[in-house]
Amino acid sequence: MRQLILDTETTGLDPKDGHRIIEFAALEMIDRELTGERLHLYINPERLIDPNATRIHGIKDEDVADKPVFKDVAQQIVEYIKDSELIIHNAKFDIGFLDYQFKLVGLNLTTDYIANVIDTLTMARQKFPGAKNNLDALCDRFKVDRKDRGYHGALIDCRLLSDVYLWLTRQQISLDGLEVKAINYKDYKFEQLSIADDELATAVPSANDLEMHNQILAKLNKSSKGKSNWFNNDNK
Q: Stretch 125-144: mean pLDDT, rounded?
């Protein structure tokens, strides 16, 4: 699945109030790694930027005065996001703006062009209920370096969100602390291994080994609230 880490910056909070997208960024991710491919656009909103919005993303009216308007880049955005899975923090906001502006230029809704949307804000709220789950808070929680983030620009926020997304979806860690990627076992052919003719050495644990083994199992059993099959089976 081709995934895109996507973010937008806008002139204000609601497209129904006349606010428009002024920055669009999407970073391509395949097999949980950024490929280096991206689409990054600044867009002339054909209106003034709300000063409160400028204080957040740092984009001023003069910065986008000579940029293309949305209708001139809309098809480029559609072609780039087509058939991809979008990863967005607070997807309702960005999809809402894209949908509104696609409609204004005679295009379909965003979901008509893509495979799926993952909202990392929803994921974070499920994992950390009651905690702050904005992008800054998640970067702090996962120790994602954001020292170069002066403003909430779409491109830098995509880069930060790519790291946050990997942390949110990390399910298996190897013994050396590296992430283990999911394996599609349907691509592998397994054959039965015969050891009938092999001379296998038998290792007999010492009393100390067994005691240490039981101590580990006891800890696992305690942390699982008595549901450790290994501990319960070994101590029957």
A: 94
The DSSP symbol for 178 reads P
pTM over 0.85: no
- Fold adopted by 2-168: Nucleotidyltransferase; domain 5 (3.30.420)
What digits encode the pLDDT tens for the residues 81-97?
A: 999 999 999 999 999 99
Helices (H), the chain: 51-57, 61-64, 70-81, 91-104, 120-127, 135-141, 154-168, 207-223, 229-234
What residue ranges do the domains of the chain occupy? 2-168
* pLDDT tens digit sequence for 152-171: 789 999 999 999 999 999 85
Say how far apart CA 168 and CA 165 lie, in whole Å. 5
Grouping H, G, I as helix, E, B as strand and the rest as coil, residue 177 is: coil
As a whole number of angstroms, the distance between CA 218 and CA 228 comes to: 9
**152 labelled catalytic:** yes
Catalytic residue among 19, 57, 89, 152: 152
**Looking up tokens 């290994």, which residue turns up?**
230
